[in-house]
Amino acid sequence: MKKTSFLILALIVVNILVIGSFFFRYVSSSAPIVGHDYRYFIPHLIDNYLFQRINGLSVHWYTPSFAGGEPVYPNPQDIEYSLPQLLVWFFDPWRAVRLSMVIYIAAGFLALYFFLNRRLELNPFASILGAAFCIANGFFIQHMVVGHVTFQTFPLLGIILVALFSRRLPSWLGGLILSLLTALLIYAGSFEIIVSFSFSILLTLPIVYLIKPSLFDARHLVATILWGVVLSLLLCGSKLYAISSLLAFSPRTASDRYTTDWLTGLVGMVYQLLGSMTIIPFHVLFEGGTIQGVATEFAGQLGRISGSPYGMWELDISLSPALLLLLVGGMASALFRRKKTKQPFDKKRLIAEICLVLLVWLVVEFTLAKGLVYPTLHDLPILKSLRVNVRFTAVFIYPLAITGAAIFHNWTKNWKHRLDVFAAFLLLDCLALFSMWIYYKIPIDLQQRIFDIREVLPVYPAIRKQGNTFPVETVIPDANPWEVFEDDATNLKDPYEPLFKSFDSQYLETLHAGPVSDITNGSYNLINPTGYVYPAANGTSPFARISASDQANFTKFINRRQTNWKLPLAQRVLDWISLILLIAELGLLLFFSARQGIRLFRQKVKHA
Q1: pLDDT at 340 over 60
Q2: Which of 317, 322, 482, 562 could form a disulfide with 432 if both were Cys (CB 3.0 to 4.6 A apart)?
Q3: Does some domain include residue 477?
């Protein structure tokens, strides 16, 4: 028994190390040239670090660094209270981003393994495969490469599943865990991941019932969700109120339109799921050509078939080839079994299957951005702000990975020789892990790796070792976000910020090149960012400059110190509620964990 446990532990560690090291190295394989969206996140990580060095962990409400002065905390993409930001205290931003990626991978893998093994009661080998399938896929790889830092939390769905289906946990405690994870996602800017998780969980619920009906306790599930929703709203109320205040000024609305019909769109989704790890090597193996050439051709095919204008990094979902083998084999086995045996009618199972079909249809509608239900649901909050609907294909990753793990478990549970099970596992696991390396051969121009991090990283040691605070002294209209620090400047554009990138003309009309201390018409040459968020509380308006009579706040602002600009009463109340609830929840979680640990220790001592 101990030998088996040691083997399983070793296999888990090896999988985490292989997957983690792949991501850590691959996103940096073309360094110093890296993914295009890192040019947004790395300057903002540095900007937040600068503020925190001066002000501690107080809320970074506004920054003078970009576009003449912008809100920070109210921005949905703000990551000042995220794991990458925390790691910037110890490592440079580029290393911090990659380390946080590995930490999320390890946490997600362990949670998924625990859910599959302890809750669904799949054998350890099947559970390891399921966890690997959920993380080692093209969707996560591509988004990490291009620099979508807010997508780093993608592996964490397993924590939600553990909280929902752990009947030993009181429903309030499961809801507490859900609220903490929700807060982690919201404060990490992972709103698209929250939507993806929501759809994935909806698809997973009937699958869990079909795999293990006894695990599905509707009353406990609903109670846990209700606790989670209420606690999440209270815990994240401060952030959500701030975001809604900013979106009142600049609503982020999006609406994709694809040129494909239903049939072509469905074929495009299949292409997305097969992806680079299957189609490219198969094409090279059976039709010849180089991986680089086939990858370029495949990227073009993805765009044409999906009817979308997006690049390969948005379209390539790529399930593991090992998972595809299990799914195809499972479907063939199910069809064969149905011909030979007649199952008794099960009303609840039929309801679960109908729900699954309807939910699949719903995800297809969202992916294709058309259908019967999509036009109505698209106008709901958060959903109306989402773009790149082709990402919704990734919703199938977790449900299909869990299904694949269950197929492997059912296939091998009656095998007499455990060595045969281990051999089958090893074959599939190696295929899943080593298939990722095909991405090293994909041309970097297909992933928009165009940002040279050498242009911004020297700022970090200047802050940490030399104590430079880079006060904002001048306006340089065309300065890039990564250039403003060393120039002691702000710019008049923010081309990579979705909420502000369309206001270049307003910035140019409001401010001029030159010292921020210039006073014209009674105002400094710097925008008062409260006008975007809390204009009524501060007597300001969007694009209004800082009044010359507000010299104290102007001086604090350009020196990156916390200003005394006013917050609405609702914001202040919600700030305190969120902070107090966070402390209380962490204390309760620590107390419950300590009590459980003591109980387990006493049981081991008793039976020793």
Answers
A1: no
A2: 322
A3: no
Task: Report yes or no on 178 lying in a domain.
Answer: yes
The residue type of 13 is: V
DSSP state of 92: -
- Let me know the angle formed at the C-alpha of 324 by 323 and 328, rounded to the nearest 5 degrees: 120
Question: pLDDT confidence of 15, banded at 50, 70, 90?
Answer: very high
Provide the residue type at 182 as one letter. Answer: T
Whether 557 is covered by a domain: the verdict is no
Find the domain containing 274 and state its range: 2-451
d(CA 108, CA 185): 13
* Dist CA 528 CA 541 (whole Å): 8
The answer to whether 562 touches 156, Cβ cutoff 8 Å, is: no
Beta bridge partners of 514: 475
Q: CB of 134 within 8 A of CB of 398? A: yes
Q: In what order do the strands lie in the sheet with 519-520?
A: 519-520, 523-527, 545-547
Tally of structural domains, the chain:
1
Percent above pLDDT 70 for the chain? 98
Confidence of residue 8 (pLDDT cuts 50, 70, 90): very high
What is the DSSP code string of 52-69?
HHHHTTS---EESSSTTS
DSSP states along 258-310: ----HHHHHHHHHHHHHHHHHHHHHHHHHH---HHHHHHHHHHHHHHHHT---
Q: Closest Cα partner for 390 from 372, 365, 362?
A: 365
Query: Which pLDDT score is estimated for 341?
Result: 56
121-143 pLDDT per residue, tens: 999 999 999 999 999 999 999 99
